[in-house]
Automatic annotation (TrEMBL):
Residues 41-170 form the Nudix hydrolase domain. GO terms for cellular component: cytosol. InterPro entries: NUDIX_hydrolase-like_dom_sf, NUDIX_hydrolase_CS, NUDIX_hydrolase_dom. This is GDP-mannose pyrophosphatase. PROSITE patterns: NUDIX, NUDIX_BOX. Gene3D superfamilies: Nucleoside Triphosphate Pyrophosphohydrolase. It comes from the Bacteria. Belongs to the Nudix hydrolase family. NudK subfamily. Keywords: Hydrolase. Its cofactor is Mg(2+). One of its GO terms (molecular function) is hydrolase activity. One of its GO terms (biological process) is nucleoside phosphate metabolic process.
Length: 184
């Protein structure tokens, strides 16, 4: 139905093969028949966890992000390993980063956070029945965890204190879920 908008790959090469990211350079035929080049980042995908405590508060992280040279407030998240199922990744990341496990997991949605230059997708999960344990941070991972109330998250988004797209979207989903407007 959208074939009149589709670009057709003619050729594809790996432009950069890094440890974390791969950059693909494709030659495509545009809908008008003209060729052009598309460069994009190949990414295995990631998960985002919305850890909700019984009292209605959520577990958040503060983590330094090198490309922007600052600390960000975020929901726990992480890259899906090769062959790993998204839910298993979410469970692993929650434990590693925060020390918590959850007895109830619900898939919320999939988002595509950078459609112009990456094939990355993020699967969001709501985690309830949180049980505190010992976190298992990677050797190069440094972050702090803290509790917040969802209304604070929305205020921080409005004030520009939270700008991370996965956290903004997660907070908006959480608001709709908690108000009963959206069911998952």
């Amino acid at each position: 139905m959208d074939n009149h908008l589709k670009e057709i790959r003619i050729d594809s090469t790996l432009a950069y093969d890094g440890h974390f990211l791969k950059v693909q350079r494709d030659t495509v035929r545009l809908p008008n028949g003209q060729p052009t080049t598309r460069e994009y980042i190949k990414h295995p995908g990631a998960v985002v966890i919305l850890p909700l405590f019984d009292d209605g508060s959520v577990l958040m992280e503060r983590q330094f992000r090198y490309p922007l040279d600052r600390v960000f407030i975020e929901f726990p998240a992480g890259k899906i390993d090769a062959g790993e199922q998204p839910l298993a990744c979410a469970q692993r990341e929650l434990l590693e980063e925060t020390g918590y496990t959850a007895s109830d997991w619900q898939f919320v949605c999939t988002i595509h956070n950078a459609i112009a230059y990456s094939d990355e997708h993020l699967d969001l999960y709501l985690a309830r029945g949180l049980i505190e344990g010992e976190r298992k941070l990677d050797a190069e991972e440094f972050l702090e965890t803290f509790k917040a109330v969802p209304s604070d998250l929305l205020g921080w988004i409005r004030e520009g204190k939270i700008t991370d797209v996965k956290t903004v979207i997660g907070a908006f989903w959480l608001e709709k879920i908690l108000s009963g407007e959206w069911e998952i």
